[in-house]
Design goal:
single chain, 4 helices, about 170 residues, about 35% strand, eight-stranded mixed sheet, globular, alpha+beta
Length: about 170
């Protein structure tokens, strides 16, 4: 995978992304709506096993510095249906990087991979849901008190999707 945007390169993860990924997954505030922050060893294992070996995610990398600032889950759920999700380094929040990377990745999936549908889910009803809607995704449902947040409290799960036919 190699996609270029104005400011970013979206590419497969590499082993030497471990420090940049740890800056993301090891931060409590960043991981607030996901799961508890990772320690370095868990980050390294996740990078090697899931991101690289299983190709379950791609990196959003700044063109100028080559720093990986975003983790983007992007994997097939079933034939022609992909799941997308994102976690970005908090130093780069509110600058349009997640939208820039994810919108181009979704367009690429429809254009190059002939994906039928891209879905996403989140417990964060503000930032994540706002980005899903900005990406053109439509709310498909809310599962009330479906999952636990990083503190172990029950949370609603917001389900969104976009069809290839939605952007044609």
């Amino acid at each position: 995978m190699l996609i270029e945007t104005e400011r970013l390169i979206v590419r497969d993860f590499k082993s030497d992304d471990v420090n940049d990924l740890y800056e993301i997954l090891g931060d409590e505030e960043t991981m607030e709506n996901c799961e508890p922050a990772y320690d370095f060893e868990k980050t390294q294992k996740f990078l090697e096993d899931f991101c690289i070996a299983k190709k379950g995610a791609v990196a959003a990398v700044l063109k100028d510095s080559k720093k990986a600032i975003g983790y983007i889950l992007f994997k097939p759920l079933e034939e022609s249906v992909y799941e997308i999700g994102w976690i970005f380094n908090k130093k780069y929040w509110r600058q349009g990087y997640a939208y820039e990377a994810c919108s181009e990745l979704i367009a690429h999936s429809f254009r190059e991979l002939n994906v039928h549908k891209v879905v996403a889910e989140a417990i964060d009803s503000h930032k994540s849901v706002g980005l899903m809607e900005k990406l053109g995704m439509k709310r498909e449902g809310v599962q009330i008190s479906q999952t636990k947040d990083h503190l172990g409290k029950w949370a609603d799960l917001y389900l969104y999707g976009i069809l290839q036919s939605d952007i044609r």
